[in-house]
Amino acid sequence: MASAAFGALPFREQIGFFQRKLNLPTTAWTDIYTQEHDYAFVVAGANRDAIVSDFRAAVEKAIVDGTTLEEFRRDFDRIVAKHGWDYNGGRNWRSRVIYDTNLSTSYAAGRWEQLQHAPYWQYQHADWVEHPRPLHLSWNGLVLAKDDPFWQTHFPPNGWGCQCSVKGLWSRDLEKLGKTGPDQAPEVKYAEHIIGVRSPNGPRAVKVPEGIDPGFEYAPGNARLRSAIPPERPDPPVPGSAGGHGLPNQRPDWPLPAARPFAAADLLPAGLPAEDYARAYLAKFGATLTQPAVYQDVIGERLAVGAELFTDAKGNIKATKRGREVFMPLLAQALQDPDEIWVRLEWMHALQKAVVRRRYIARFQVEGEETPALAVFEVGSDGWAGVTTFPGTGQSEADWRVGVNLYRRLQDDQE
Fold first, then answer.
1. Tens digit of pLDDT for each residue in 320-347?
2. What region does 144 belong to: left with phi over 0, alpha with psi -120 to 50, or beta?
3. pLDDT for the residue 5
4. Which pLDDT tens digit goes with each residue over 179-225?
5. 246-247 vs 340-348, strand pairing mode
6. CB under 8 Å to 255, separation ≥6 — which residues?
7. How far is it, in rounded angstroms, from Cα 352 to Cα 335?
8. Strand order of the sheet with strand 120-124?
9. What sign for the dihedral angle of Cα 328, 331, 336, 338?
10. Which pairs count as long-range contacts for 180-189, CB under 8 Å and 24+ apart, including other chains?
């Protein structure tokens, strides 16, 4: 057991968050601040690649294998002796800071990802803390919507040694607590702190919410989650690519399931602001324009969903492309309940490289339309693209059905 504060066992999201970090030498703890820690592994004052790399391996072992603080301290002593590292502070204090901070923030980042499925979050203060912080204690039991701005600055840990946590809740849980909805978020007051007084780069002032230690006023994992949201590709999926440059070119010998009925009233009206279309799409996955979510598809693949799906390079929401906005519900359902999922390695001429793209397709008989609509959602390392089309002359459903079939929805008579 690594620490009672961080959970008895490491878990996939925690390990994945840490392993995606890049090593970065630094001269002081203020060199990397708040959400920048989502991307960089640092040990304050470890200014050589070799030292950072060795500490990285020791911390990763602690997270993955659940090694204790005393075991980590043996690694700490070995690394210090090997590199002749002259660090600030005592050995026990410094090793604990490195150990606790990395385990607690990676745990928090993993929980941030896990909790995206719960509509409400509850702040929980650890009962075993000997000297509780008054404000942390006052937040105990606070229930807020997961997209409440409070969590952007108050998601624990909220300071050195903080052992607070967050629990996910659903409507039924609120009923058990005697609540009809979330609580009112407390007023957030800010205080100015001077950090980096002994830093080679000099001191600077930061504004931090009261009750939060400087450097902890962020939600670990949030920046990383947003960066995982695929950007939209400038061009739509090209059915012709389904037989062009790429592999494999295997095609199915079975037909698509019969088109599912879709009520015209469930389409979106034309002429709405772009934000409304994006908001409607994101809501299908439990996300909002301000709060991303992680969606797990029918084969277990995870996809980060958020406003960045529709955000252009200038930060504007662009959801009204090629008339697709009206058919946003079809695109969402194609991802949530596809007829088939295909994967294929395809060549990108513009970048002169190959990318793996996963393609979700679903067919619907929209009320009032003679021809079934085909909704296609495609995602890869180069971003995502989506289209809803009514196949006609020169274009068929077969154009999209090529590669490796990962999933097929069976009709009732096939089950």
1. 877 789 999 999 999 999 999 999 888 7
2. beta
3. 41
4. 999 999 999 999 999 999 888 878 999 999 999 999 999 999 988 78
5. antiparallel
6. none
7. 28
8. 143-145, 120-124, 165-169
9. positive
10. 182/120, 182/143, 182/144, 182/145, 182/148, 183/142, 183/143, 183/144, 185/142, 185/144, 185/148, 185/149, 185/150, 186/138, 186/139, 186/142, 186/150, 188/150, 188/153, 188/154
Whether pLDDT at 170 is above 60: yes
For residues 397 and 359, give the distance between their C-alpha atoms in angstroms, rounded to a whole number. Answer: 13
Q: Contact, 200 vs 28, CB < 8 A?
A: yes
pLDDT given for residue 9 in this prediction: 61
Q: Which of 162-166, 246-250, 290-294, 354-358 is the least confident region?
A: 246-250
Element (DSSP H or E) covering residue 56: helix 49-65
Q: Which pLDDT tens digit goes with each residue over 96-139?
A: 999 999 999 999 999 998 998 899 999 999 988 888 999 999 99
Those residues with Cβ within 8 angstroms of residue 385's Cβ, 6 or more apart along the chain or in another chain = 232, 233, 235, 236, 237, 377, 378
Cα angle 289, 292, 297; round to 5: 125
Residue 100 CB neighbours (<10 A):
21
Residue 241 has pLDDT above 80, yes or no: no
162 class by beta-carbon count within 10 Å (0-12 exposed, 13-18 middle, 19+ buried): buried
For residue 111, give both structure tokens. 């929980």
Residue 260, SS3 per DSSP? strand
Separation CA 119–CA 113 (nearest Å):
13
Spatial distance between the Cα atoms of 223 and 238, rounded to a whole number of angstroms: 32
Phi-psi category of 367—alpha, beta or left, where left has phi over 0 and alpha has psi -120 to 50?
A: beta
What is the C-alpha to C-alpha distance for residues 88 and 90, in angstroms, rounded to an integer?
Answer: 7
3-state secondary structure 343-373: EEEEEECCCCEEEEEEEEEEEEEECCCCCCE
- List the beta bridge partners of residue 261: 365
Predicted TM-score of the model (pTM):
0.68
Residue 244: the pLDDT is 53
Residue bearing tokens 């030292």: 51
